[in-house]
Amino acid sequence: MRADKLLANLGYGSRKDVIKLFRQKALTVDGEAVTNGKTHVYPDKQTLEVFGEEVTYKEYIYLMMNKPDGLLSATEDAVQETVVDILEPEDQLFEPFPIGRLDKDTTGLLLLTNDGKLAHRLTSPKHKVDKEYRVHLARPLSAEGEQRLKEGMTLEDGLETQPAQVSRTDDPRVIFLTIQEGKYHQVKRMIAACGSHVEELERVRMGPLVLDEDLERGAYRELTDQELARLKR
Fold first, then answer.
1. Which Pfam families does the UniProt entry name for this protein (predicted)?
2. Which CATH number fits domain 130-206: 3.40.50.150, 3.10.20.30, 3.30.70.1560, 3.90.1300.10?
3. How many angstroms separate the Cα of 101 from the Cα of each of 44, 64, 168, 186?
4. How far apart are the first and last CA of the chain?
5. How many other C-beta atoms can be found within 10 angstroms of the C-beta atom of residue 225?
6. Is 96 strand, coil or helix?
């Protein structure tokens, strides 16, 4: 990539700030000073130093967030706060976006990345990636409702849902629901069609990735190498 883009992505300031760094010969590549921002560098093959300190560049970022209530699953909005708004500036530089939207009032596991190929693989219907939710119901799910969820159903707008997995808990108003689709308000609409409604909704798993119980609401961290490898498989 171009040297000026590299420095900008590393957080060394605006275009004017980066130009000053080239004038100061701050960036060296394999020991040679770079003075032209158009110079192409190879971060994965060359040794990069800024003011004598070695820097490591990564192309992609992979974040696990425990999404809080009240944030939009979007990169930007003119009025409302988004999940990207609460990222640290150094993480926003990578321009990550959420993989699979969660409703504003839905909490839990949200992945953010700038890796478009991985995002497509995790959201494409043909890859059938599980999405598991903890669902707090207004009224306990009936046996008939559970069977409808497991068999698949046709919603009022004609959407035919695929068979879901349902796990009950000791609390009759709390179930775990696993689907492989992600249509607009799908879980809420499915539960409504079964004679109840959702009071709280939390995503706890996406594919092989499980929400880190140590992450507080609104907190996030980078995926471990093991988590990322499982996702890519």
1. PseudoU_synth_2
2. 3.30.70.1560
3. 32, 14, 25, 12
4. 28
5. 9
6. coil
Contact 88, 63 (CB under 8 A): no
**133 within 8 A of 203, measured Cβ to Cβ:** yes
Task: Read off the pLDDT of residues 183-209 as tens digits, 9 standing for 90 and up.
Answer: 889 999 999 999 999 999 999 999 999
Calpha distance 106→101 (Å, rounded): 10
Catalytically active residues are 103
Q: Residue 70 corresponds to which amino acid?
A: G
Q: Tokens for 112?
A: 């953010």
The overall pTM is greater than 0.85: no
Query: Residue ranges per domain, the chain?
Result: 3-55, 62-125+208-232, 130-206
